[in-house]
Design goal:
The chain is of the alpha/beta class. Helix 21 crosses helix 22. About 45% of the residues lie in helices and about 15% in strands. The relative contact order is 0.07. The protein has 4 domains: about 150 residues, DNA polymerase, domain 1, CATH 1.10.150; about 90 residues, 2-Layer Sandwich (Beta Polymerase, domain 2); about 70 residues, Beta Polymerase, domain 3 (2-Layer Sandwich), CATH 3.30.210; about 240 residues, TIM Barrel, CATH 3.20.20. It has a 7-stranded parallel β-sheet with strand order 11-12-13-14-15-16-17. It contains 23 helices and 17 strands.
Length: about 575
């Protein structure tokens, strides 16, 4: 079994136990073990014994024994027993925003409902509002959550799909017949959610490539096997389509299968105006093929500069290319530091020093430690005394670490009335103040807008974190007037965050473009809670690129001296 498959077993166990109201420490133990196993850089099955598994952080003897049973047999007796209980079917309810394990069990115990379809019907009939501790408001939220869950059911997050697609890509790229290989579709355009994976190969020997593809260890089912296209369903439950084309058609196929549909329609129309036919096989003048081996050829024959895949949404990129005004999009290499990093002082996994050294190893020159403030009690948020103690640790660390800087910061909660969770005189001692909403998402549009604007107008605030509050596939953005928020940022020299955390990617691409057009600068940060979270920066960069963001729009693309100047000026 793969690490991900083992982790999913433990995740499901934790969900079932939470519905059964099992000891919360036991539930957390399975959740923590799943996270540890999913994050391993090597197969758990490569460990020689149960004793070695026990040495992993967050894994005790009981879970190590169960891990070993899964590795040896592919099954787990304890899990099979849990799956036979009615509560196992209720875990589907936990995919519904706003519906937790207590309400899932309550609904089942009183109404016998164990499917989302039956739950939806009962909510529409008004049967939930009479249950203990629920009412009309909760019932309405559950109905809204069901609609949202159904909306995202067929799509996975970019960060979930991208590494798995890359793993398949790497396995195929090592085959001798493969001359060129690339992702295509919405995954290549780096959309925040993806329905399936498209892979394109250039080769004059399609059969051995197809044979290898349908025989990959990830394959659960072969949906189709053809001479130029095959489709598989992986054991993780997502579909991968592979197409093999001739080398001379690779660029044309890349363009065609990358999309988007609207972009492609515009490009084909431009070709027709120029007397050309453009399709997945190439560019043709009459019957004569005049291009298509590379994407650059296609754009060049239309008099256009190369349009990066992230921009191909028919949102003005063709007009910009015609006018020679395509943006020089920000790149991962442009980022000099991370302005939103957590440590084990609150809910992070690593020490400040570990976070700093890991960032330096990745080529960054500075980070800002922005642990939670005290209002976020579940994260053991910092009060004034603990924050000042942390600041002393950062001073000592900066004297110790060479060629790197750790900035003093905080992710301070914005309270419901717009006040901040810490006093201004405390915040004034920090290098960076990141303000964020973590509660009371139920405010009206006017109330939420006023709340954010008031925080932005506080002269100590530098950055508004994850500004719209969305959680991809789980929570829609809270209602707010983003234009008013951006106007306040512009007036107060406050910056908006592009949060690279895979479930957030907030600001989204559309709002990044909106900020760019209004003149509001951005901070592309990871919100890292442990060292491997720095790898998520590429997803924040992709989101910003889709929003036409350039290096000049990003404050953490500045060197440290220029950044300090910009932060001081903002205050």
């Amino acid at each position: 079994m793969t690490n991900r498959e083992i982790a999913r077993v433990f995740e499901h166990i934790a969900e079932i136990l939470s519905i059964q109201a099992e000891n919360p420490f036991k539930v957390r133990a399975y959740t923590r073990a799943a996270q540890t196993i999913a994050d391993l850089s090597y197969p758990l099955s490569s460990l020689p014994s149960q004793a070695e598994i026990e040495k992993l952080p967050g894994i005790g003897k009981a879970i190590a024994q169960k891990s070993w049973e899964l590795i040896q047999t592919g099954k787990l007796g304890y899990y099979e027993k849990l799956l036979s209980t009615p509560h196992a079917r209720l875990t589907e309810f936990l995919r519904i925003p706003g519906l937790g394990p207590k309400h899932a069990k309550l609904i089942y115990d009183h109404l016998g409902i164990d499917s989302v379809d039956a739950l939806r019907a009962a909510a529409e009939r008004g049967e939930l509002e009479s249950l203990p501790g629920m009412g009309k408001k909760t019932q309405a939220k559950i109905l809204q959550g069901i609609e949202q869950a159904l909306k995202y059911k067929q799509r996975s997050s970019l960060a979930e799909m991208h590494p798995r697609a890359q793993a398949i890509l790497e396995q195929l790229s090592g085959l001798d017949p493969v001359e060129q290989i690339s992702l295509a579709g919405s995954l290549r355009r780096m959309r925040d959610t993806v329905a399936d994976v498209d892979i394109l190969v250039a080769s004059d020997q399609a059969d051995p490539v197809m044979d290898a593809f349908v025989s990959l260890p990830e394959v659960a089912d072969v949906l189709a096997r053809g001479p130029t296209k095959s489709s598989i369903l992986t054991r993780d439950g997502f579909q991968v389509d592979l197409r093999v084309v001739a080398r001379e058609s690779f660029g044309a196929a890349m363009h065609y299968f990358t999309g988007s549909k609207n972009h492609n329609i515009r490009i084909r129309a431009l070709g027709q105006e120029a007397g050309l036919k453009i399709n997945e096989y190439g560019v043709f003048r009459g019957k004569r093929r005049i291009g298509g081996q590379t994407e650059e050829e296609i754009f060049g024959l239309l008099g256009l500069a190369f349009i990066p895949p992230e921009l191909r949404e028919d949102h003005g990129e063709i007009e910009a290319a015609q006018a020679g005004e395509l943006p020089a999009l920000v790149e991962l290499a442009d980022i000099r530091g991370d302005l939103h990093v957590h440590s084990r002082w609150t809910d992070g996994r690593n020490s400040i020093e570990e976070m700093a050294l890991a960032a330096r190893k990745r080529g960054l020159r500075y980070i800002a430690i922005c642990d939670h403030s005290s209002a976020l009690k579940m994260a053991r948020g910092l009060d004034r005394a603990r924050l000042q103690e942390q600041m002393r640790e950062i001073d000592e660390l900066n004297r110790k670490i060479k060629s790197f800087a750790v900035l003093k910061g905080i992710e301070v909660d914005i309270l419901a009335d717009g006040r901040l969770d810490l006093e201004d005189e405390v915040l004034a001692e920090l290098d960076v103040v990141v303000a964020a909403v973590h509660s009371r998402f139920d405010l009206s549009r006017a109330e939420m807008t006023a709340r954010l604007v008031k925080a932005i107008e506080n002269p100590q605030v530098n950055i508004l974190a994850h500004p719209t509050g969305r959680i991809i596939s789980k929570r829609e953005p809270y209602p707010l007037d983003l234009d008013a928020v951006m106007d306040a940022c512009l007036a107060c020299n406050t910056f908006l965050e592009v949060n690279s955390f895979p479930e957030r990617l907030d600001l989204c691409d559309i709002h990044c473009r909106q900020a760019r057009d209004r003149g509001v600068d951005l901070a592309i940060s990871t919100d890292s809670h442990r060292i491997d979270h720095y790898d998520w920066l590429k997803f924040g960069i992709a989101t910003a690129r889709r929003g036409w963001i350039e290096k000049r729009h990003v404050i953490n693309a500045l060197d440290l001296k220029a950044l300090r100047r910009k932060l001081r000026k903002a205050r």
